[in-house]
Amino acid sequence: MDLAALRLSNQRIANPQPTTPAGVVGWLGAVQAQDYLGALWAVGLRTPGATEVDIEKALADRTILRTWPMRGTLHFVAAADARWMLELMTPRVLARNRLRLKREFDIDEAVVARSRDLFIEALEGGRQLTRDAMYEALEDGKVSAQGQRGLHILWWLAQEGLICFGAREGKQQTFVLLDEWVPQPKRMEKDEALAELAKRYFTSHGPATLQDFVWWSGLTVTDAKAGIDGARTHLLPETIGGQTFWLPPSIDAKKQKSPAVHLLAPYDEYTVAYRDRSAVLDPAQAKRVATGNGIFHPILVIDGQVVGTWKRTLKRGEVVIVPNPFAPLSRPQRRALAPVARRYGEFLGLEVVLEPETSASTSPPMAGGSPSIS
């Protein structure tokens, strides 16, 4: 079984299908999104013909949204899924962080209760406020937002389901009341939610293991197993090397002509969604892709394998792309990279300048993201 090829297909990288941004995000379950601009591309490359404007329009139209639904980390989720995902996965994250937040930031239930009242007063009626304006609302209400205290209060109340990100105001992210932004969300009992999450994950990310699902979701092993049991009619187990992998019963695995090249975003689900990434990334090269402090760089993938990183530089009317492969690219690989780079330029609405490759080095995220808290 070719794990890389099946994952490329199931994740809609090698096999994008006509759909909407909300359709892509709903298919994947969630798309990691602390690097905002990179996450726009992660959705866009899986949405045939989409532009960055299209993905942002989906956010403004409230069909997808950005919040902290799992692992204390920012993700895009389908708007209709936000409430049940938060209720399923965030209580454990908050419980695990309560003592630390009290010790390091003097944030406790009383502070959160006061902040909750202040945010409701500031946002109700459909208002959207930037982060600085949210901090001002806290300060005006005698709640300090100094240092990172304000961010941690936002983080807490987003995971409680009070607030989420709204549409961008220029280059600034805004916050809104989740109940006003998505007034009719799906609600699920725990067993149903576990089964739905498992079905989404293994259908879109499979073949993957129980341990991968636990890593991605942040669930306990017990709950993850319950989710798999609840989704068994939608999944197929395969034993490889003594491990059980779960995947959908039927896969439309599109055969790609080699060399098949992909420019993937930082934190793309193709790498970040698995505890064991060895099927697509040589462990000897792992630190060149993911640093020890949780930074994932944009990756260059050829024939399913991560073979380097890449970086972009925005200039007037153009985007400059520089590939940083682990080893020199062959002539066919360089030729295959050119149309992929052009597709990225089309996504941005910019002309592309594809620079000669450099030796692999760390590539910064695409910028514009909000920090995650784990």
List the helices and strands and how they pair.
Layout: H1 3-10, H2 21-28, E1 31-32, H3 36-44, H4 52-60, E2 64-70, E3 73-78, H5 82-105, H6 109-123, E4 129-130, H7 131-140, H8 149-159, E5 163-165, E6 174-177, H9 178-181, H10 190-205, H11 210-217, H12 221-230, E7 236-240, E8 243-247, E9 261-264, H13 269-272, H14 286-289, E10 299-302, E11 305-315, E12 318-325, H15 331-348, E13 351-354
Parallel strand pairs: 12-13
Antiparallel strand pairs: 1-3, 2-3, 4-6, 5-6, 7-8, 9-10, 10-11, 11-12
Features:
globular, 3 domains, alpha+beta, single chain, 374 residues, Arc Repressor Mutant, subunit A
What is the structure about, briefly put?
The chain has 15 helices and 13 strands. By secondary structure, it is α+β, with helices and mostly antiparallel strands.
Describe the 3D structure.
This protein is an alpha+beta fold. The protein folds into three domains: 7-181, Arc Repressor Mutant, subunit A (Orthogonal Bundle), CATH 1.10.10.10; 193-247, Arc Repressor Mutant, subunit A; 261-354, no CATH class. 42% of the residues lie in helices and 17% in strands. It has helices at residues 3-10, 21-28, 36-44, 52-60, 82-105, 109-123, 131-140, 149-159, 178-181, 190-205, 210-217, 221-230, 269-272, 286-289, 331-348; strands at 31-32, 64-70, 73-78, 129-130, 163-165, 174-177, 236-240, 243-247, 261-264, 299-302, 305-315, 318-325, 351-354. The strands form four sheets. The chain has a five-stranded mixed beta sheet with strand order 9-10-11-12-13, covered by helices on one side. It has a three-stranded antiparallel beta sheet with strand order 1-3-2. Strands 4-6-5 form a three-stranded antiparallel beta sheet. Helix 3 (36-44) crosses helix 4 and helix 5 runs antiparallel to helix 8. It is globular, with a radius of gyration of 21 Å. It starts with a helix and ends in a 20-residue tail after the last strand.
